[in-house]
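Q: I have 354 residues here and want to know how they pack in 3D. Can you give me a structure?
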Amino acid sequence: MHKRLLHIIFWVVIFCNITPAKAQIAMPDTVCTGTSRVYRVNDATVPSTYTWMIDGVTQPATGNQLNVTWNREGSFLITVQEHSPTGCDGDIRSGWVHVFPAILANAGPDATICFGTPYRLNGSGGTTYHWSPPTYLSNPNISNPVADIPKAGTYIYILRVSGNNVCSATAEDSVTLTVLPPARVSAGRDTSVTLNQSVQLQAVDLSNSRFNSYRWSPASYLNNPAISNPVSTPRSNITYNLTAGTIDGCEATSSITIKVFDKPDIFVPNAFTPNGDGLNDQLKAIPVGIVQFKYFKVFNRWGEMVFSTADPQKGWDGIYKGQMQNGGNYTWMTEGVDYSGNVIQKKGYAVLIR
């Protein structure tokens, strides 16, 4: 709030042995906390001294003016008495000063917010409130609206408040909200194992989110559910849900499914539909308990090899030499070595469905 200087003039006339000294004061005065005032009597050229008091407490000033900064609310009595060089004292004159609380907007502390997490602002300092811009706020005209920001970035909100007393001038403050990018974690690809075979799980930070805590659920068959890379020895099919926490208190989730088979094998579906719908679009060999996957090959009815890979993550999409192949039966062959060193060879037929 801007400080204003108020000059309150005491006119003092001294008539020693004739009449008592008289003074006139422009009171009461009304100010806001934090305001400075200068109160004067007579003129600086008048060769008198003065006794100033506030609520009966003598002030250091002895000249014709009193400088006061009002820091407390309440009503205060100022008194002044003139002392002339001739030894005459004037009448004690007084006036009230009423101090009201100043309007000081407080938009609250700056904050860092996890992506997708609503944040409640906390403004104070007035009786009416207005936040700007109103974007993403539940209500810009209350002290504590909820900010639900859908995009990562830095957002500055300005709070303007006003009061209902003499100190009703509008004051403002601002708060900066930093919305972090979404945290992303991967629990790994779904996999298959044989009974009594262990699998090493591994949480992967996909967004450089600085994860520092991990929780795998359920904890069944895990050697430690609270680390990034536990070992699972499942006895039945199971899906693990991973929750990873960042140093900023944000969380990301992922899951992995492990299928358990009785013995090592290589499975190949008997049909696939490469139509781009995301379901069974490729013909793949699925190794279980295989430590060395040697090959997976597909042949058409004329014996031409239309696909070959040594990567079990890759499959045939029904295209050969840049051309989509016709529907019908195709022969496949595959080979691998299990964790006991046994060679597994299999072959069969799969139907390409259009």
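Q: Anything worth noting?
A: The CA atoms of residues 13 and 19 lie 9 Å apart. The chain is about 0% helix and 50% strand.
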